Amino acid sequence: MSEHQNMTTPRYPSMYQINTRVWLTELSRTLGRRATLDDISDSELDRFAAMGFDWIWLLSVWQTGSAAQVVSRANPEWQREFEETLPDLKEEDVAGSGFAIQSYIVHRDLGGDAALARLRARMKKHGLKLMLDFVPNHMAPDHPWIDEHPDYFVHGSEIDLAHSPKNYCRVKTKKGSLLLAYGRDPYFDGWPDTLQLNYGNPALQQAMIGELMRIAGQCDGVRCDMAMLVLPEVFERTWGIRADHFWPKATDSVRQTLPDFLFMAEVYWDLEWTMQHQGFDYAYDKRLYDRLREGHARPVREHFHAGLDYQDKLARFLENHDEPRAAATLSRDVHEAAAVITFLSPGLRFFHQGQFEGRHKRISPHLVRAPDEAVDENLKQFYDRLLTVLRHDVVLNGTWRQLECVPAWDGNSSCDNFVCAEWQGPDREHLLVVVNYSAVQSQCYVRLPHDELRQGTWLLKDLMSESVYERDGTDLVSRGLFLDLPKWRYHVFHLAASASHVR
């Protein structure tokens, strides 16, 4: 039995996203037969728990159908992307998007609902919670509702089809041919392997709440795909159809039965605060991700000016299945600096399968196989150290605040290149995170506003290296900690009284 079994979820948990179909394809090769969720070993679950994860998000577990698969295999643009990922691409590698859902039952190839229930029970023994997908905006073209409830979908006209052929299509149903809209967001062409649900129809909203209630009985939380698309103002802007609020009703309905159920929103366009107030526990922090990609410290610091009531409910990430691989888009030193900032800030720490190993190729959710890539051992060692830091109680349950940096001397403006913060535990444990987030060597003093540090001397042990420094307490408080760091370098200091500390 795992030592994590009886641990409660910390204030700042960690989540690991796994592409379920790719994972089981790799396991199938090892076993020499088709693997299901029952073949995921307890030792693997224990490894995830030992790494410090509280949540496992299993991507793409739901039943998909042949209609979406045909579209995926025939789309020339997608095919080029698949071949870039898998130069030896085979037809069976393209199973159709895991977001073109035919039914919210676990895919038969994964072992069905019963296999997921058994896996979830085993995960619970290891202290792991299960997150699954909920896709509110659209369904697969062969979903049963096409025949049973065509009024659940957005319909178009011959004029719509003529003017926007990439957003509408003809669909054969038991009640005849219909002109329906592809699922889409307002800024891009439709996804041709999906059909758009009509949130202006109250019956559709109730049906989707019913689907959500069934999903909630099979997991501990859901990641809601493109959650902002069904907000009334967004839906009306996209389709010209007025809709009632969906998310407050949906989240309340689930929590009446399952009060601890967790909702995470994939959300963009600066609507994170809106989604938090619609009932979501967490919202994607795409804004921090974008600012880190830009490579400038000041916008990152400004992002952290928001209150903790907001920041605590953000999901911080450096990559996921929709974004490019961090190792492919960031140089090693920038990658490490960005990771220290991202995952040592408050909120949900959101990691992606392959991130620790330095994978370069993003895997489309249409694919069920990943390319073979060498492990970047140096990056893996970095993440091993970072995950060890993230298991410290001070960053799991402590209090975070950003710290002020001032010029090291008159005329030196390089203090603007730093992002510095502090974690403090209930027993006055201090963890100091300092990052020179720039391409030049930089200096500053970072202010440590704690009178209890004045007495004696302090050891600053860098948890990301073997470095240890000794500093006078009075100097730390009056002038601050002097930093002189090369480009993109960082420290994560644990402060402890030295042997000569005066009490």
Task: Write up what this structure looks like.
This protein is α/β, with parallel strands linked by helices and 503 residues long. Among the domains are: 14-134 and 285-391, TIM Barrel, CATH 3.20.20.80; 398-497, Golgi alpha-mannosidase II (Immunoglobulin-like, Sandwich). Helices cover 33% and strands 21% of the residues. It is built from 19 helices and 23 strands. The strands form six sheets. An eight-stranded parallel barrel has the order 1-2-5-10-11-12-13-14, surrounded by four helices. α8 packs parallel to α10, α12 packs antiparallel against α13 (297-303) and α16 (332-343) runs parallel beside α17 (377-390). It is elongated and about 85 Å long.
List the defining traits of the structure above.
503 residues, alpha/beta, Immunoglobulin-like, 6-stranded antiparallel sheet, 23 strands, disordered N terminus
Strand content: 15-25%
Mean pLDDT: 95
Q: CATH first level of one domain: which class?
A: Alpha Beta
Radius of gyration, CA atoms, in whole angstroms: 25 Å
Q: Assembly type of the shown chains? A: single chain
Residue runs with pLDDT of under 50 for 5 or more positions: 1-6
**Second rung of CATH, namely the architecture of one domain:** Alpha-Beta Barrel
Main pleated-sheet profile: 8 strands, parallel, barrel
* Sheet with most strands: strand arrangement: 1-2-5-10-11-12-13-14
User: How many DSSP helices?
Assistant: 19
Q: How would you sum up the global shape?
A: elongated
**Strand tally, please?**
23
